[in-house]
Specification:
Number of strands: 29
Structural class: mainly beta
CATH class: Mainly Beta
Strand order of the largest sheet: 1-2-29-28-27
Largest sheet: 5 strands, antiparallel
Number of helices: 3
CATH topology: Neuraminidase
Radius of gyration: 18 Å
Helix content: under 10%
Distance between the termini: 41 Å
CATH architecture: 6 Propeller
């Protein structure tokens, strides 16, 4: 059951080739040791000028970046971080090659934001499989808000899209499904926050309805798991707020959770869903927003601790359970991808124009 405070938490997560960019060195700040201590390396900038960058994926030598955009001057609905958030076609997907060439491969996707363009709803994640590029589109928070927006592009809010050239088609309408049938109960809210393409179909996460979905064909949605509320020591309960997912080395789906307001330290969990049930895999995390596995089986978790006034960071959890902070001093990091001895992290993930992706060696 959701309370107004929990609804704000679910809305918060808003949280799917040109110029050459050389990496100016970027130092990272100190960190609170969670176990093993690592010497933090400087992150190199590999993509800049991004608008609210969110989820990442790596495919065939290209790094794909979902950009939630900056809203626009279209029709508006009530917002969380601004009195009104207005619709525009400023959402996009950017691709960056191994040599640093960066360009937007899809533009004109829906985006909702206030006048300053921060904390936008829009493309929230990207997943590439067999050359097909899938994008989740976040928002619009309250299901009824989509119907208040007058532009046709608004129908793509709260969906999973398949890119088709520079256009896209809807393959899963989470918002429509949730309307009147919210998996975790009323009020009906939707914020499609992640997409994952597999061999046998698609998975999607709706952060606002706390649910993991399967998409088994165009328009065929199935609720696979609903994440229960988290009981706090004081007897109150907050939403789990699932945020992102990745396939593990064992083929299971691993899901990160942000938790609801007040985002208690140590309350977030990474869950392992084996096709039947979800069980805790890594606990004691704080505001986990994204995750990926390294080649040695280590799990990399982005903790967006910016929501409680602490710097964002990336935590590596080794197969033996050892935890090491491998990047710190980040501002609203929102995505991570691990490949070829390095990991990539979005920085300034809730800001327009200054968003970037950093590369770290591990």
């Amino acid at each position: 059951m959701k309370t107004p405070t929990q609804m704000c938490a679910a809305a918060f997560v808003i949280l799917l080739m040109g110029g050459s960019f050389t990496g100016a060195g970027r130092s990272t700040a100190g960190f609170n040791n969670l176990g093993k201590t690592a010497e933090l390396s400087a992150g190199a900038v590999v993509a800049t000028g991004l608008d609210n960058p969110r989820g990442l994926d790596w495919s065939n030598g290209w790094l794909f970046i979902a950009e939630a955009g900056t809203g626009g001057d279209g029709s508006c609905v009530p917002g969380i971080f601004a009195p009104e958030i207005c619709l525009g076609r400023t959402g996009s997907v950017t691709a960056v090659s191994r040599t640093g060439h960066q360009r937007r491969i899809a533009e004109g996707l829906p985006s909702l934001a206030g006048p300053d363009g921060t904390f936008a709803y829009g493309p929230s994640d990207v997943s590439v499989k067999n050359g097909l590029v899938f994008v989740s589109i976040g928002g619009p928070n309250e299901v009824g808000h989509r119907e208040l927006l007058t532009e046709a592009i608004a129908k793509k809010l709260g969906t999973v899209q398949l890119l088709f050239g520079r256009h896209s088609i809807t393959v899963g309408d989470i918002s429509e499904f949730v309307a009147g049938n919210d998996p975790d109960g009323p009020p009906d809210e939707t914020n499609t926050h992640s997409v994952l393409a597999g061999w046998h179909g698609l998975y999607a996460i709706d952060a606002a309805s706390n649910a993991l979905f399967g998409i088994n064909g165009p328009g065929r949605l199935e609720v696979l798991h609903v994440f229960d509320d988290i009981a706090l020591p004081d007897g109150t309960a907050i939403d789990a707020v699932p945020t992102n997912m990745v396939f593990g080395p064992d083929g299971a789906v691993y899901v990160s959770t942000l938790t609801g307001v007040p985002f208690p330290e140590g309350a977030a969990t990474v869950w392992r869903w084996d096709g039947v049930q979800a069980t805790p895999f890594a606990e004691g995390l704080t505001a986990a927003i994204d995750l990926d596995f390294g080649p040695d089986g280590s799990l990399y978790v982005v903790e967006m601790r910016s929501v409680i006034g602490l710097s964002g960071r990336v935590l590596r959890i080794a197969p033996d359970g050892t935890r090491t902070v491998v990047a710190d001093g980040l501002d609203f990091p929102t995505g991570v991808a691990v490949r070829d001895g390095v990991f990539y992290v979005t920085n300034h993930g809730t800001s327009p124009g200054i968003g970037e992706v950093l590369r770290f060696r591990h």
